[in-house]
Specification:
CATH topology of the largest domain: Rossmann fold
Radius of gyration: 29 Å
CATH superfamily of the largest domain: Peptidase S8/S53 domain
Number of strands: 38
Distance between the termini: 84 Å
Shape: globular
Number of domains: 4
CATH class of the largest domain: Alpha Beta
Low-confidence stretches: 1-28, 48-54, 138-146, 213-224
Structural class: alpha/beta
CATH architecture of the largest domain: 3-Layer(aba) Sandwich
Strand content: 25-35%
Amino acid sequence: MASLLQLLPILCLHWLIININISFISSNQIPKLQPYVVYMGRSSSSSSSTTSNGNSSREEVEIAKLAHLQLLSSIIPSEESERINLIHHYNHAFKGFSAMLTDKEASALSENDEVVSVFPDPHLQLHTTRSWDFLEPQQPTTYNFHKYNLSSTDVIIAIIDTGIWPESQSFKDIGLGEIPSKWKGVCMESPDFKKSNCNRKLIGARYYHTPSAAASNSTLKTSGGTPRDPIGHGTHVAGTAAGARVRNVSYYGLGRGIARGGSPSARIASYKACSEDGCSGSTILKAMDDAIKDGVDIISISIGMSSIFQEDFLSDPIAIGAFHAEQMGVMVVCSAGNDGPDSSTVVNTAPWIFTVAASTIDRDFQSTVLLGNGKTFQGNGIHFSNLSRSKKTYPLAFGKDVAARLTPPSEAKSCYPGSLDPEKVEGKIIVCIGNDPTVPRKIRKLVVEDANAKGLILVNEYEKGVPFDSGTFAFAQVDNRVGSQIINYINSTKNPTATILPTVDIPKHKPAPVIAYFSSRGPGQLTENIIKPDITAPGVAIIAAVVPIDKEGIVPIGQKPPKYATRSGTSMACPHVTGAAAFIRSVHHQWSSSMIKSALMTTATVYDNLGKPMRNNTGKYANPHDMGVGEISPVKALDPGLLFETRTKDYLNFLCYYGYSGKIIRSISNVNFNCPNKSSEKLISNINYPSISITNLDRRRGVRIIRRRVTNVGSPNATYIAKVDAPSGLLVKVLPHKIDFTDTIKTVSFKVAFYTKNKEDTSTAYKFGSVTWFDASHSVRMVFAVSFL
């Protein structure tokens, strides 16, 4: 008996371990649920099976929903029937749904013959009026925006973003005509958003239920449960694209002028698919399907996948939605991403998407540093502190000299989190070195501010040209040259002092435009045989409508929350192109999306306001992987002379060349189509795109010939002559060198031959150049990029 008593604790311990292990194994065997998108190709509604207004009938939608629920029930166990629910259902431009599934269930669905692709619902990122005045002087003097007195147009722009703040003056409908009859959308209500918030400018507003971020069960949550914008990103984007003209706008006195969108007469429909945390891919897909069904002309999306984890074209919700939008005559404009200046960071790279990079305009925001010895240095940045109203100076210290105990000086001089001693920092202006791009300026500012400093002077070469808004905390950013002089001053005197003067705006700043450091660069990861980004537009310190939030540290003492403010990002560049495209469509109603895209690309400028080639943030000449074809010239694009029209067949051939099967392509397209007998990725270079990209040109195997066709939209009788601008080591010939158009000959094909004369050169780097077609009054420029084996 004693021995059993002695063994009892051991037996109990074994029992406990066994049960813990069993419990651990059982808990790990519980399948994890997460939202998936099930894409099933084209919808019957996208071709012939529609009602008279072009929308699916209610009966068709219900039948499709039932079919998808039945499909779900075939793979979800009967004892879990409560999970047979659709998060989103797609049935207009394309068909499919999103639902909470296990990995095993998703895999089973992917084997279904009706399914094109199944992928986890991705988490996408937000890419966040002087700009329009800056673009206008670049136009020929015979053109002017105001020549086209478009008090009201039928062009409808869908803004898929964080919602909208309807009270902004930018969305007033004064002078606009009746809502276009083609509009079939809605103005959804909520406790803080009424139907009366919509008008003849803001004609529609939707919001969506989205999958739970935790993805631990089948519950849903809403993005605020209202069309209203809680953060201002969508409002800023909408105002930039199509905001009404609003006089005497400024950001607390900075950048004063008229705020307006690129197409002030266009209509806006807002689709709230995002929150502060980002965007659900399945919700964006639903918003795109709704926008197409609602009758919009252009969809603007300042959102994208992570450049690190890019999916193929049939697992990317924006690429899927944009493909079907293009087939139904709706243009999709997207931001290129904010992961620059590294190469191969551009996103939204499908050829049917118009992809936009970001550049500066000719306005800078200057915050001057005044040292105790009387010397001044021009800094960059926006702040609204009362630090220097009396030009009083404050103690000045270098970060490494006020380091926290046991903190390496290298971390303190860069003002890393936790690196500063608040007792040493309090009451001082701190100098930090900020050339490590992994720590944002906002973080360094918070580190210094939380340590009770009076202000921050950031020595930062990396992010120059993009002014940081530090709210009510004094801030100035200087380059390395100025930074070294300020640090020398600190080391040369016992009691160094300084102040940061109030921010002022500097008009007519030169050079401009310059490609922004954050703007994502090409070539594209998914294919290098299409140049991406396509084009550049203003995206730095753009003033437009925002949500007036009264937030401490943002609103100056005694002031009201701002109704207009600056934002930077390719998010801001994208709506510039959207507005320009809407402007062109309002004049050329019959032009297709690809024709508008071609007009903007072939008329873009590559020169700054000094008359020199555009540069990037490092001071080097910008190339097509930085900026695409160049900066938009909207009015010039109204009369481009020639157009490269990319048709549905081009896009289908692209998919064949990329490697998708004919069966998949037929399931997603609305035309009867078979892939060419020979398909390879290098043939992508031959689709009729307004630019050319060739990868791995073999130096020893002769010539690569690229084909293009152009349509004359200028004078019926015109003769164009080609001019080639080729880099050294690359020979480029155009055949024929001259093309003639007449009343009966409107479309002509030509070839461009590429080969190298230096077969011993071992460099594989890209070379860039252009082919320009000239007649008496037009220049039609097509850029090219070539890499070598």
